[in-house]
Amino acid sequence: MSFHNYNPVRRYDKNPILTGKDFPDSYCIIHVFNSGIIKHDGKYLMVCRCEDAGLKAYFWIAESEDGLRFTPRDKPIDMPVNDPMFRKYAEVNIYDPRITKLGDTYYLMHAAHSRYDCRGALQSTKDFRTFTWHGFITDAGNRNCVLFPEKFGDDYVRLDRPLTTWDSGDMWISYSKDLIHWGRGDCILPKSRVPWAWSKVGAGAVPIKTERGWLNIFHGVRSQAKSHLVYQLGVCVHDLKDPARVIALSRKPILTPTMDYELHGQTPSVVFTAGVVVEEDRTIKLYYGGADTVQCVGFTTVDELLALCDEA
């Protein structure tokens, strides 16, 4: 395949699929991006990351019959504002929700920011109407927490990116017996293994189980002209039984910012995913934020992405 024919993710020709103008005027939403996604009772449910004109953050559910045309609900998800820990450690922002189904429960792992840095947090729901707050699941200095949709033995497993004292920007893995207390952290994908992302790498969408292994669509960042960061998407494969083993890796990004809605916005030159939907025919709807401003979608397949990954 020549470079000029390299097109593993096809953008939807009607991108962006959601902008701030699609939400009720009373909330003055100006940004919607990096949203989680899942199929529930035959509908596509997107947990949108939204910001209003004062940069107050919301999680807001939008629904769709076809995965392309979304309608936001009348109001955002209620947050546990009466919880003193939430008020203390999520006072600045909540963002980047990822949705994982385990049994009959849907778990939202997301980031929360405060004057004390970033922490991972956990909520759950069974109906996307009522949400249970489980609290914070990392210490300060951790983000990009993504829960695997299957237990490994007695362990829940997540990907994350702890910020070390020198901010290495590498992808790690952690384990838990109860979803609250996590440990046995291990660096599994250092940025040095990703030639197009020398600044940092981190988890993106919830991993996809395939016959070859767990397909992981992640984000990678490179610095351009010293001060400018470019966010791209890549893909790797984890061993089916031991997700700490990255067994294959794409040597090129699968999506890089080139469109106006990806290059220009709140944060220029960004494509960032927090969720995908895999259809029965193995096609993938890949949902991503453009320039930290609008919500977009692209199309690919499980087989195309697996074919890009060389043995690591």
Q: Which features characterize this protein?
A:
single chain; mainly beta; 6-stranded antiparallel sheet; 4-stranded antiparallel sheet; 22 strands; globular
Describe, in plain words, how this protein is organized in 3D.
This protein has 312 residues and is mainly β. The protein has helices spanning 84-89, 260-263, 302-308; strands at 10-11, 29-40, 43-52, 57-64, 71-72, 93-102, 105-114, 117-125, 131-136, 142-147, 156-162, 171-176, 182-189, 200-203, 208-209, 214-224, 228-238, 246-250, 271-278, 283-290, 294-301, 309-311. The strands form 5 sheets. Strands 14, 15, 16, 17, 18 and 22 form a 6-stranded antiparallel beta sheet that branches. A 4-stranded antiparallel beta sheet has the order 1-21-20-19. It has a 4-stranded antiparallel beta sheet with strand order 2-3-4-5, with no helix packed on it. It starts with 9 loop residues before the first strand and ends with a strand.
